[in-house]
Amino acid sequence: MAEASSALDPNQFRCQICLDQLKDPVTIPCGHSYCMSCIKSCWDQEDCLAVYSCPHCRQTFIPRPVLYRNTILAEVVEKLKKTGLQAATPVDHYAGPGDVECDVCTGRKHKAVKSCLVCLASYCETHLQPHYESTAFKKHKLTDATGRLQDKVCSQHDKPLEVYCRTDQQCICYPCTMDEHRGHETVSAAAGWVERQKQIGETQKEFQQRIQTREKELQELRETVASFRGSAQSAVQDSERIFTEMIRSIERRRSEVTQLIRDQEKAEVSQAEGDMERLKQEIDELKRRHSELEQLSHTEDHIHFLQRCQGLPVVPEAGFGPRISVSPRCSFENVRKVVSELKDQLENGCEKKTAEIHHTG
């Protein structure tokens, strides 16, 4: 039995409704098997129509078939459980956070792959098969699995939104075209999609053109800024060089004026020192003669006194040079005046030229 069970596909013993291993398996007239509770629950929902169908092949039955437990199938499933052969479902087939769940699965939900706008339900790969295999679902409209199916259904008529109203620019159902949207310009949702796609395409082209224009302007502005910065840097370097040369020129002129003043000072001081030396010599000579006269005035020898007086000058100026002026012959007041005027002219010139720089900027 172990060899036989190992050759079996565990998926053959899986309920096509709950996708789990069969529990109390029953086989309906078309030959497909389900869990007793799963097929009962499914057919309970169809009681209002009094028409019952196979969830897999969609074959219909009237009246509702009586369900009997398939004992042979139940024994096979039970033995499969004992041998550990389970119908495993890949983990990634189960619905996780953010996934759309299959509306047919019971227990742990599988991930839906498609949604039906007619059934208003989402299906996993297994429960979607009847939509592909049965002609009863041929006209059903499938879309990518979505958890917002109600957004695709008219809230007033509970019908799929398959029409686009150009007048009100909204999606509507067919009954809406006969009610509040009567007389409006309408097209199919597919045609509306094509129109909107075209409009979006034109809008995208316009946006792309604007983007290209703005990017070109941005690039030109960047180049202008780079050129302006380069020009500013060059101007700063040139102005610093020129101001440095001006400062050096002023320093040279300052040194020249200082040297000129020192030269004049040296000449005047030298001449004054010469006059001072001569004056000291004259003073010494005058003191000597004064001393002689003082001694002579105390002589009582008349003959000696008269003989000595004949060799002496009558006035003190005799034998001495001209009078020396004690007032300075050279004044630096004019130098101060000229330098001050030069400073004022330089400041006025700098202020004027700086104002011109502001205006040109």
UniProtKB/TrEMBL annotation:
Give coiled-coil spans as residue ranges.
204-296
The UniProt entry, under InterPro entries, shows: E3_ubiq-ligase_TRIM/RNF, TRIM8/14/16/25/29/45/65_CC, Znf_B-box, Znf_RING, Znf_RING/FYVE/PHD, Znf_RING_CS
SUPFAM superfamilies named in the record: B-box zinc-binding domain, RING/U-box
Q: Name one GO molecular function term.
A: zinc ion binding
What domain of life is recorded for the organism?
A: Eukaryota
Q: Which UniProt keywords apply?
A: Coiled coil, Metal-binding, Zinc, Zinc-finger
Q: Which residues form the RING-type domain?
A: 15-58
> Residues in domain B box-type?
149-189
- PROSITE patterns, alphabetized: ZF_BBOX (PS50119), ZF_RING_1 (PS00518), ZF_RING_2 (PS50089)
What Pfam families has UniProt attached to this entry?
Answer: TRIM_CC, zf-B_box, zf-C3HC4_4
Protein name as it appears in the record: Tripartite motif-containing protein 47-like
Q: Origin organism of this chain?
A: Paramormyrops kingsleyae
